Amino acid sequence: MRGDGDGWVLGDNGTRHWGKHGAAGLLLRAPAADGQPTVLLQHRALWSHQGGTWALPGGAKDSHESSVDAAIREADEEAGIGSARLQVRGEKVTARAESGWSYTTVVADTESQLSTTINGESTELRWVPEELVEELPLHPGFAASWPELRTSPLRVLLDTANVLGSRPNGWWKDRSGATAELLTSLSDALPRTVELAGGSFGWLTRIEAVLEGDARAAQFEDARVPVIHAEGSGDDELARRAGQGDALTALVTADRGLQQRLPAAVQVLSPSTVLGWLG
User: pLDDT tens, 129-139?
Assistant: First the structure.
């Protein structure tokens, strides 16, 4: 059934863009067996606009739809992936035209590479490792936006005491037990796409949790959240580790004093942002 968004928007200079109310596509990531990110790409049927190129599942928005709803609907129509196992991580307008038309890329994750079913708009659907995306003949619009959509490997340090103390849930009654519960919840939220300051994206497979004091007695072991026992101050240990290595690094804390001790390249994530990952 055709929606009310199907149709071309024509610009004064003769350009045309599909979608009377704009368009949206789904950038869906899933971890490969080694934990590295893959994205679901569509090889467009030859008869379609820019046929023979690779792009994201997507299409025209209907007048009543949000970009998220439109992207998920189109991806389901074109790839048969449903919506129940998707977690939306953000959305980004990746193209605009003087006519007022725009294209929004909706970024989402799923726990594993979902099986797909093609329709007549595709010749193939493929989970492609991020590092290999640029080797394919990409749709020009997707090729232009890919540099701002792809992820960089992200290292995250956790100021565990600060995050634990940000919620008045009685953690002080059993600090080690509450710490173990927090770290278990965080490990279950990995791997994932993380939207960073400036609109860039990171791919996160591990969170390094620094523990101090009584929290060091927490009974927890999971490779996704390696635990570091600070010999002294947790802040000292976090500041020291933040300055190590050259990977893109973020630190989770609301402690302004600690933030002032960090290298300029280290991004700060608020406890509320990370706790929001827990659903």
Answer: 999 999 999 99
